[in-house]
TrEMBL record:
Organism, scientific name: Tateyamaria omphalii
Name of the protein described by the UniProt record: Succinate dehydrogenase
Function: Membrane-anchoring subunit of succinate dehydrogenase (SDH).
A Pfam family matched in the record: Sdh_cyt
UniProt keyword annotation of Heme present: yes
Gene3D superfamilies according to UniProt: Fumarate reductase/succinate dehydrogenase, transmembrane subunit
InterPro entries in alphabetical order: SQR/QFR_C/D, SuccDH_FuR_B_TM-su
Principal location class: membrane
Names of required cofactors: heme
GO cellular component, one term: membrane
Keywords on record: Heme, Iron, Membrane, Metal-binding, Transmembrane, Transmembrane helix
Record SUPFAM superfamilies: Fumarate reductase respiratory complex transmembrane subunits
Entry's localization field: Membrane
Length: 110
């Protein structure tokens, strides 16, 4: 039952990430074509709750999606099972979340 839940959660996070990736790429293309500098981009994102929510959701989805994917690889290729497998998944997920959350905070509110 756990593997079905993880499978479905990974698919749901993929559905969330798809429009977020497209939105991110569209914004990057707009910024590059507009000739915006990093300072100008940060000037537009600092203090923005909308960008915080956009990229915050992105980080949560990627953290969950990536951790579940690494869990599957660690099980199939690394032979991890049981508590070690779950610990690896949680460590990867929390690590991805911590790095992503720090970046989102730096871009929007720091």
């Amino acid at each position: 039952m756990l593997s079905l839940r993880l499978y479905m959660l990974q698919r749901i996070t993929a559905l969330l990430m798809a429009p977020l990736v497209i939105g991110h790429i569209a914004v990057m293309i707009y910024a590059i074509q507009g000739g915006l500098s990093a300072a100008e981009i940060l000037g537009r994102t600092q203090g923005s709750v909308a960008w915080f929510l956009f990229y915050g959701l992105f980080v949560v989805a990627v953290s969950i999606h990536g951790a579940i994917g690494v869990r599957a690889v660690a099980h199939e290729w690394g032979g991890l099972k049981g508590a070690a497998l779950d610990a690896a998944m949680w460590a990867i997920g929390l690590g991805l979340f911590a790095l992503g959350a720090r970046a989102v905070w730096a871009v929007t509110f720091a």
